[in-house]
Amino acid sequence: MxxxxxxxxxxxxxxxRHLVLLYSGGLDGTYLLHLLKNTTVxxxxxxxxxxxxxxxxxxxxxxxxxxxxxxxxxxxxxxFTESVPAAIHADAYYQGQFPxxxxxxxxxxxxxxxRVARDVGGDAVGHTATxxxxxxxxxxxxVAALDPALHIVAPFLxxxxxxxxxxxxxxxxxxxxxxxxxxxxxxxxxxxxENGSLESPANRLDESVFTxxxxxxxxxxxxxxxxxxxxxxxxxxxxxxxxxLGELVTGLNELAGRHGVGRYSGLEDTAxxxxxxxxxxxPAATVITVAHRALANAILDPREHALRTLLSTEWTTxxxxxxxxxxxxxxxRRCLRDLDEPLNGxxxxxxxxxAVTVLRLQTPHGxxxxxxxxxxxxxxxxxxxxxxxxxxxxxxxxxxVVDGESPDRRDLDxxxxxxx
Length: 420
Hints:
The chain has helices at about 10-15, 25-35, 60-65, 75-90, 100-120, 135-145, 165-170, 245-260, 285-300, 300-320, 325-340, 370-380, 385-390, 395-405, 405-415, and strands at about 5, 20, 40-50, 70-75, 95, 100, 125, 150-155, 185, 190-195, 225-230, 235-240, 240, 265-270, 275-280, 345-350, 355-360. It is of the alpha/beta class.
């Protein structure tokens, strides 16, 4: 039967047989490898990366130092064929504040860990997230959905060990890791920065944390303009040049970042009610979402648009809370993709000192009056407007007859309240 191991004491006293630990060479994971070295558990440290691996990473060497096997897995292709399209279809801004970031990478990391666990005969998958991080749910729920037999190890949920203590213990064993002021998670769709001076929203925002986007004062004096082409709701070309999604996102990150687009700061809700302050940079995500929303607004009818907005919010919240592989998450993702099928066209945009402006929009499926004007007038010539007016006022008319008094008369007789 599956076990949820949520403290260091439980991990060391009743360890799994073979743990696949998600590991990137950071302080938390290295400290955990240090603790596990003297236990009976076999450990495979798994470094999952999106894009080129960090050539300066110490992960392989540190894993070997503490007796763990080491594997690297590249999920870049899956990120751009599964994760990013889902975020685009949903205009995935968490709580309407900022584009999702690690929400897109954590399910892929969990799936990679499950695959490796099956290959090496592992009976558990572990990570170092805490209860202050929504990644705990994203990783744990994903593993649970993908393999009900694997134990889930999250020892820092119930064991609060400070960074200073972790560094001191590692130093005793001859390992010295720099104490980064901020905790940073990066993938091509977003860069999330937290901790340090950013923990309190009362502190003035530290501009030095931004590396992908320029401050408005440092942006080019002249704006950049581009044309983005969409097919079935996904961007497929920029300025008429067809591009794979990965190249398109990479190029937009550079261009939009140079023009200061994509900076965010806000409080993210966590599982236990407390809010976590996060700063984000998402240049490409910002530009694509602005264009995608404009196209959806031009093409979808009112009921489609309202439903899509509701489903987008529900899917984003579900994914943030770890339900990527849940039945609800999968169903919402399919529905949003299907709703986007008619979203074909081009959107012209201007990027200037942090702002994105829609300049022009062209689509064969647009419902705008200017495109349909002459035909629309012909269609409406035979319409019974008097009947429409009677139906529109039906409820008010009936209530007036029943009440015997005109609501309009009551409204006219009411005197304004001047006591306030």
